[in-house]
Design a protein that fits this description.
Number of domains: 2
CATH class of the largest domain: Mainly Beta
Structural class: alpha+beta
Number of strands: 9
Order of helices and strands: EEEEEEEHHEHHEHHHHHHH
Largest sheet: 6 strands, antiparallel
Number of helices: 11
Strand order of the largest sheet: 1-7-2-5-8-9
Oligomer: single chain
CATH architecture of the largest domain: Sandwich
Distance between the termini: 52 Å
Shape: globular
Low-confidence stretches: none
Length: 294
């Protein structure tokens, strides 16, 4: 599956589009396009890469992304077994930012919406009260037609533009240094890493996936992502470890093994380097956030 500049279905007479997904697994490759995009995951889980950020996603994940921001949502391996009881459902809203800016040109709202689009260049995940309100708007926009659908769409943007319930994804200095040709190569690399991160992955092996020599691959990966391959692999593994620490009572050693580490000292070191917490401290922190105080 080769990555490409995805056709979002937008054109002069259709400047925002609602797409529904109901499949065994998500099948869009690592890509970017010229539209803004709001992605709501209604069923399913896995990992997402947005710019230089990697994290786990699950039911309810809601992300806004600006134009030309490379991204991929990939389900965990169990989804590729095509079990009848497991489906992925999502709604994606594509829109042309110039459509909105042209509608409100010269108004005070234009400055606020432009600020939202600037934030969207890094990708933002939407949480808390705004997340709940956006779920309501998604239900409304699915049922609406004509001007009513446009009204709900603009209300969604207004809500997002004034909300503080967001977290940035890509790093502050991130910029897309990739070409369409690069995304094809990175699609293969990222899919391989997301599928196999829990196993030992040698530099020779991943360079072979990219069809490059190890030395050339290291330079290439760093130039396009602004981080080393080893650092990126550690981020995938620690992201998965965080998911396990949040969602079950596995021992720290079992979490390490499930995340691709066979050495507990190594696991603790990498975890603290990325999150400035030990795995046990992280688990205690997230549990304190979800459990009501006495």
């Amino acid at each position: 599956m080769k990555a490409r500049l995805i056709d979002t279905g937008l054109h002069a007479n259709r400047q925002f589009r609602l797409k529904t997904v109901d499949e065994y697994y998500l099948n869009s490759p690592f890509h970017f396009h010229e539209a803004c995009e709001i992605v709501l995951i209604e069923e399913g889980y896995g990992k997402r890469i947005v710019g230089d950020h990697i994290d786990d996603f699950e039911k309810g994940d809601l992300v806004l992304m600006g134009p030309n921001l490379p991204h991929i949502w990939q389900n965990d391996n169990v989804y590729f077994q095509k079990r009848k009881t497991m489906r992925v459902k999502a709604t994606v809203l594509y829109f042309d930012p110039s459509l909105v800016l042209n509608l409100i040109a010269g108004s005070e709202a234009a400055v606020i919406i432009q600020s939202l689009f600037t934030k969207a260049r890094r990708g933002v995940v939407i949480k808390h009260a705004t997340h709940s309100l956006m779920l309501q708007r998604f239900a409304e926009i699915r049922a609406a037609e004509g001007l009513k659908r446009m009204s709900v769409f603009l209300d969604m943007l207004d809500m997002l533009s004034t909300s503080n319930d967001i977290e940035f994804l890509a790093s502050e200095n991130y910029h897309n240094a990739m070409t369409i040709k690069d995304t094809g190569r990175f699609n293969a690399v990222y899919q391989f890493l997301i599928t196999n991160f829990h196993q030992e992955i040698s530099l020779d092996e991943i360079a072979g996936v990219a069809k490059m020599s190890p030395t050339a691959f290291c330079r290439y990966f760093k130039a396009r992502t602004n981080k080393s391959f080893v650092s990126f692999l550690q981020e995938i593994r620690i992201s998965h470890a965080c998911k396990l620490l949040r969602s079950n009572d596995l021992s720290i050693m079992d979490v390490a093994l499930e995340s691709g580490y066979n050495n507990l000292v190594n696991f603790n070191k990498n975890f603290r380097n990325i999150l400035s917490l030990s795995p046990s401290e992280y688990r205690k922190k997230v549990r304190a956030e979800v459990e009501p105080s006495a």
